[in-house]
């Protein structure tokens, strides 16, 4: 029996066509996607300003499809094609980058190279808007909804909205390890190595950082679908792993049982703030992004409090520049609205500051941004190739376009250098 597909803030599954074509706004289900189905209220002044700024930026970067036939001798660059310029500029004028994303979801624009267009935009994000006009940024941003706060109840809801969509959905594009975080490749291009091998390398690096071996007492914050716990248990560790996703917990338990490691792995449906006990090692992979700045002190205090004397913490964390983080911290974005409610990517400075405040020190810190770009490319290509399978699970065309944009948007962040991913070792900063 197929699981019920859960889509954030939307009722029930809805069969949908798998064809990748521009979809008129009238075809969008208004109950599921109210802000995609209807255009925002007309604001002529803001629409005109958006038309001027965005059209100028796209033209300057050679991203906009030319009005006439392109010169075949000209260097090829990724192109953005506007199917409905009026709707596109109206959405951007009203809601900035949220409107940009909703316009794509509505089928009002497309690209022959979506990650290429987004990478170019991300690489030039600082100069897309003339300096005198940057003070108008407040016109296009809104505050994060209070409901997205990662209180204990809020965190459960936010995790449910993304990670409990459907195990089958994630299975369509992840590798057989079901690892939903950056791999670490031995070399590029990735075709010389499977994604599964690269994911195991990433996990092994983290376990080595934390000195995980026979009889190590290991706490994992953020179970995923259990691959790290399985790999640690196979080394002889005793693993306690915490998750708020019931879908992930169910499948992870089944995988642990199948592997014959149930005596070494305890999977708990539990908030990190409720962690109990002391451990020789703590590992947390791309979990901090779901914590929220308000609760970073609690997160690092939990890490410190869980360590036995001499223990080690190995983190894998997505990071962004400190000023970009400060600009984003209180802002409602397309990603926070549709993909990761309550999420915020920290800066390296923020990680170091909160770790130090909790009594931890940074002993190692290595970046792997190109590896995440490659991981996301592989996920995006798999998702695109299996679009029909995703549609058959009950996800409609707007969701499919949303997920394609999310994967391409993320890939662009790492390709452009706007985002990084770090493996960080934390140890005790001072005696208890």
Explain the overall architecture:
The protein is 42% helix and 15% strand. By secondary structure, it is of the alpha/beta class. It folds into 2 domains: 39-140, no CATH class; 148-428, Vaccinia Virus protein VP39 (Rossmann fold), CATH 3.40.50. The protein has a 7-stranded mixed β-sheet with strand order 6-5-4-7-8-11-10, with helices on both faces. Strands 1-2 form a two-stranded antiparallel sheet. Strands 3-9 form a two-stranded antiparallel ribbon. Residues 1-26 have low confidence and may be disordered.
SSE inventory with pairings:
Elements (H helix, E strand, L loop, with lengths): L33 H4 L6 H17 L19 E3 L2 H21 L3 E3 L2 H10 L18 E2 L8 H12 L3 H7 L21 H15 L7 E5 L5 H8 L3 E6 L2 H13 L6 E5 L9 E7 L10 H11 E14 L1 H7 L2 E2 L1 H5 L9 H10 L2 E8 L1 H17 L1 H6 L4 H19 L3 E10 L4
Parallel strand pairs: 4-5, 4-7, 5-6, 7-8
Antiparallel strand pairs: 1-2, 3-9, 8-11, 10-11
């Amino acid at each position: 029996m197929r699981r019920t597909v859960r889509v954030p803030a939307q009722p029930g599954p809805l069969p949908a066509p798998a064809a990748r074509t521009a979809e008129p706004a009238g075809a969008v289900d208004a109950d599921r996607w109210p802000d995609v189905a209807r255009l925002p209220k007309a604001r002529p002044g803001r629409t005109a300003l958006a038309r001027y700024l965005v059209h100028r930026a796209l033209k300057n970067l050679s991203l906009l499809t030319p009005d006439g036939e392109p010169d075949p001798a000209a260097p090829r660059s990724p192109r953005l094609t506007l199917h409905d310029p009026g709707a596109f500029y109206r959405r951007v004028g009203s809601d900035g980058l949220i409107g940009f994303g909703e316009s794509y979801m509505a089928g009002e624009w497309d690209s022959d190279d979506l990650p290429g267009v987004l990478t170019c935009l991300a690489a030039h994000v600082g100069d897309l808007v003339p300096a005198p006009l940057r003070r108008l940024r407040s016109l296009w941003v809104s505050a994060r909804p209070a409901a997205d706060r990662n209180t204990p109840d809020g965190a459960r809801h936010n995790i449910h909205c993304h990670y409990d969509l459907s195990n089958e959905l994630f299975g369509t594009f992840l590798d057989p390890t079901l690892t939903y975080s950056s791999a670490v490749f031995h070399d590029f291009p990735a075709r010389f190595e499977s994604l599964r091998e690269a994911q195991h390398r990433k996990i092994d690096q983290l376990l080595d950082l934390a000195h995980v071996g026979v009889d190590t007492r290991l706490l994992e914050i953020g179970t995923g679908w259990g691959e790290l716990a399985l790999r640690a248990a196979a080394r002889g560790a005793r693993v306690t792993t915490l998750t708020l996703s019931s879908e992930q917990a169910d499948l992870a338990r089944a995988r642990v049982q199948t592997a014959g490691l149930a005596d070494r792995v305890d999977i708990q449906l539990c908030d990190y703030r409720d962690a109990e006990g002391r451990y020789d090692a703590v590992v947390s992979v791309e979990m901090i992004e779901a914590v929220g700045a308000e609760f970073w002190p609690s997160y690092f205090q939990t890490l410190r409090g869980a360590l036995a004397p001499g223990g080690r913490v190995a983190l894998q964390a997505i990071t962004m520049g400190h000023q970009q983080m400060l600009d984003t911290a209180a802002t409602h974005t397309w990603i926070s609205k549709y993909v990761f409610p309550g999420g915020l990517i920290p800066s390296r400075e923020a990680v170091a500051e909160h770790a130090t405040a909790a009594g931890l020190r940074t002993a190692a810190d290595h970046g792997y941004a190109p590896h995440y770009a490659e991981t996301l490319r592989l996920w995006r290509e798999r998702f695109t190739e299996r679009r029909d399978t995703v549609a058959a699970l009950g996800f409609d065309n707007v969701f499919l376009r949303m997920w394609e944009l999310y994967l391409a948007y993320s890939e662009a962040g790492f390709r452009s250098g706007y985002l990084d991913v770090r493996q960080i070792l934390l140890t005790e900063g001072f005696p208890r």
